[in-house]
Amino acid sequence: MSALETLQLLDAEHVMQTYGRVPIAFVRGSGCRLWDSEGREYLDFLAGLAVVSLGHAHPEVASAIADQANTLLHVSNLYYNDLQPRLAARIDGLLGGGGRVFFGNSGAEANECAIKLARRWGMTHGGPSRFHVVTAFRSFHGRTLATLAATGQPEKQEPFQPVPEGFRHVPFGDPAALEAAMDDRVAAVLLEPVQGEGGVNPAPEGYLEAVRALCDERDALMIVDEVQTGLGRTGRWFGFEHAGVRPDVVTIAKALGNGMPIGACWARAEVGESFSPGDHATTFGGQPLAARAALAVLDVMEREDVPTRAFRAGKRLADGVLTLPGVVAVRGWGLLLGAQLNRPVAGAVVAACLEGGLVVNAVAADTIRFAPPLLVSDDEIDVAVDIVGAALADLIGEGNA
Ligand code: PLP
Known about the structure:
Elements: H1 3-14, E1 26-30, E2 33-36, E3 41-44, H2 47-50, H3 59-69, H4 84-94, E4 99-104, H5 107-124, E5 132-136, H6 145-150, H7 154-157, E6 167-170, H8 175-181, E7 186-191, E8 194-195, E9 201-202, H9 207-218, E10 221-225, E11 249-252, E12 263-268, H10 269-272, H11 288-304, H12 306-322, E13 327-333, E14 336-341, H13 346-355, E15 358-359, E16 361-364, E17 367-370, H14 378-395
Parallel strand pairs: 3-15, 5-6, 5-7, 7-10, 10-11
Antiparallel strand pairs: 1-2, 2-3, 4-12, 8-9, 11-12, 13-14, 14-17, 16-17
The protein binds pyridoxal-5'-phosphate (PLP).
C-alpha cells in the first residue's frame, strides 16, 4: 500500500468527512514548492488558500516560531503577554493608526468578532433593533453559524437552518440594491473587496466608494473582510486601498501567520471601544506563539514590499494566462486572479495542472483561481503559465482561443 493509500484509509475511518479531497497528501514545502507523500514535486500557486504568502517554510518565520516555542507558547488573556500589544500596534499602523485590534484564530473568528462588534455598536447607535448586517450574494465570510448566515450562498446555509437572524444579502457591486436594503435596523455592511471563494469577483470601480458614502449617510459601519485579500495580495496592503476608502472595521487572517492560525479584527477606536471587558474572548487569541509568527511575517512583508511585488508578479501572471487557449478573461487584483474559461472545464484543467505539477483550484465551473506566494519568481510564473497552457491545449485545443 502506498503512503497515500494508508493516509486515505486512516482519513476515511477517523476524520469527519467534511472535505472533498484531491488524492494527494503534501508532506513538505519550501518557497513556492511542495512535495507529496510519493515524492512528487509541485509548484504551489494556491499557497494553501491564499495563506502562505511568504512561501512554505520561510526561514525567518520558522526560526521565530521555533524560538518562541522554546520561550513561551501560551499565557491566558487574563494577563498581558509581551507580543500581543506589539502586534496590535503593527496592524494598526498598517491600517493608518487610531484603531483597536481583537485577536482570534481564523478568518471566521475575525468576522464573528466584527459582527458582534457591529451589534454592540448598533445598540448604542439606534437601540436593540439595530443589529442587521448587509452582505453580498456570492460572498464568503466563514463557516461558524453567524459567518455562515453572513455568507451570501443560500445553499451552504440550507443544511443548518435556522441560521442566526439579522443578515440581508444584496447583489455585489450594485449600490442601488444596497441603498434599498439599508433601513435604520442596519448596523453594518460587510463586504470583500474581491470575492475570493465566490469566483474571484473584484468590486466594480466606484462600488466601495458608494458603499462608504451610503454607510456615512445612514450612520452604518463599513466592515471590509480582508481575510483573503489582506496583507499585500491584491497589490496593495489591503484591497480597500484600491478604492481609496477607509473602512470602520477590517478583518484579516490567512496571510497574517503564513500558516500559523491567527485572525484579527481591527476597528477604529470609537467602534472598537464598543466592547467592554467580558464582551468577547477566545482562549488562544493573540497568544505568544501566533503573535510572534505574525510579527516575523510583517517584518518580512515590509522588507520585501510584498504589495509591490504582488502587483508586478500579478501583471506577469495575468498577461501570461490571458494568452492561453480557452481563456476569455482574467479577473482579480495583484496575485488573486481568476482565469475565466470559454467552457465549464475548470475541474478538468485543475486536475491536468496537478498532473503537470502545478497546484491551482477551481472557484467556479469555468474559473481557475491563482493565489501563489507573493514572493513568487518570474521563472516560476512562466513555468506555471506553461503548465496551464499545456492543460488547456489538451482539453480545449490550441485553435480554440
Ligand atoms: N472570509 C474570507 C473572505 C475568506 O476567504 C475566508 C476563507 O476562505 C474566510 C472569511 C473564513 O476564514 P477561515 O476559513 O480561516 O475561518
